[in-house]
Specification:
single chain; mainly alpha; 12 helices; 78% helix
C-alpha cells in the first residue's frame, strides 16, 4: 500500500498516541474507577482479540488453521507477561513514570540482545548508554525505599517481555497475523479468568471501568498495533525506535489532562537523561558503518 509522506506521518502519530493511550486508560481504570489490574488485563485481552479477529475477517484471513500457523506460544507468553506486568505496575505508578520505565526497559532489552549477538558498540553508542543508565539510576534511587518500588519492578518485567516480543516480531513477515494469533491464543485464558473474576470478585465493575478496559484493548492495543504494523515497514528501524521514545511524553501530557497527575522535576530530569542517551545511541546507528 503506497503512502504519501503526510499519510505516513499521520498514521505513525496516531499509532504512537495509541501506545500512550494504553497508559492513560490503564490509570483511569485503576485509579479513578478502581478496576482490579487482573480484571483490566483480562478485558484488554478479550477486546483486543475480538477486534483483531474482526480485522482478519475483513481481510479474508480468519480461518483458525491459517491464524494458528502464525505467532507462537512463546510470543503469546511474552505478550501475557507484558500485559499483566503493565497493569500491576500502574497500581502505584503515575502515567508518565510507567511509560518512561516501560520504553526504557524495552530499548535496554533490545540493546542487550544486540550486544549478546556479538555487535560492538561505537564510542558514541557507549556514551549514550552510560548517559541513559545514569538517568535510570538517578530516577530509581529515591524510589528504592518507596512502596512503588515493587510497581517499578513489575514495569521493568513488562518492558523486558515487550522487548523480547519485539525482537521476535522484528523477524516476522506477517506481523499483523502474528500479533492477532498471539492475542487469540490468550483468548481462552482470558475468558476463563474473567468468568472466575465475575463469580468470586467482591467489587462489581463500573460502566466506565469496563469502557476504559475495552478501549485499551480494542482501540489502543488491537487497532493501535494494527496501524503501527502497517507503517512499520515504511520506517527505518532506528527512526521507528526514536519515534517510540516520544510515547512517555504523550503519556505524561495525557496524565496531566485526564488523570490530574503532576509532573515533577525529578521525572523531567530523569527522562531527559534516559531518553536523550537512548536517542544518541539510535541516531548513531543511522549513520553508515
Amino acid at each position: 500500500m503506497p503512502f504519501s509522506t503526510g499519510r505516513l506521518f499521520g498514521f505513525t502519530f496516531i499509532a504512537l498516541l495509541a501506545f500512550a493511550a494504553n497508559s492513560i486508560l490503564c490509570r483511569l481504570a485503576l485509579r479513578v474507577e478502581e478496576v482490579a489490574p487482573l480484571d483490566f488485563s483480562l478485558i484488554r485481552i478479550l477486546s483486543a482479540s475480538l477486534i483483531l479477529w474482526l480485522l482478519l475477517i475483513s481481510k479474508g484471513a480468519h480461518r483458525p488453521r491459517l491464524i494458528l500457523q502464525h505467532g507462537s506460544h512463546k510470543e503469546a507468553l511474552y505478550l501475557l507477561v507484558y500485559i499483566l506486568g503493565f497493569s500491576y505496575a500502574y497500581i502505584g505508578l503515575n502515567t508518565a513514570t510507567g511509560a518512561l520505565i516501560l520504553f526504557a526497559a524495552v530499548q535496554f532489552t533490545m540493546l542487550a540482545a544486540s550486544l549478546m549477538s556479538g555487535k560492538r558498540l561505537s564510542i558514541i553508542e557507549s556514551i549514550g548508554i552510560l548517559i541513559s543508565f545514569f538517568g535510570l539510576c538517578y530516577f530509581v534511587y529515591p524510589e528504592l525505599d518507596n512502596p512503588s518500588g515493587l510497581n517499578l519492578l513489575f514495569m521493568v518485567i513488562a518492558g523486558i517481555a515487550w522487548g523480547l516480543y519485539s525482537l521476535v516480531g522484528s523477524q516476522s513477515s506477517s506481523p499483523l497475523l502474528d500479533t492477532s494469533s498471539n492475542f487469540i491464543r490468550l483468548f481462552p485464558f482470558a475468558v476463563a479468568g474473567l468468568m472466575a473474576v465475575l463469580l468470586w470478585s467482591n467489587g462489581p465493575l463500573t460502566g466506565l471501568g469496563i469502557f476504559y478496559s475495552i478501549a485499551s484493548g480494542a482501540l489502543a492495543s488491537g487497532l493501535g498495533y494494527a496501524l503501527w504494523y502497517l507503517v512499520l515497514p515504511k520506517l527505518a528501524k532506528s527512526v521507528a525506535a526514536v519515534c517510540q521514545l516520544s510515547v512517555p511524553v504523550w503519556a505524561a501530557i495525557g496524565g496531566v489532562l485526564f488523570v490530574n497527575e503532576a509532573i515533577t522535576w525529578h521525572l523531567v530530569i530523569s527522562a531527559g537523561f534516559i531518553l536523550g542517551g537512548i536517542t544518541l545511541v539510535l541516531l548513531s546507528q543511522m549513520k553508515p558503518q
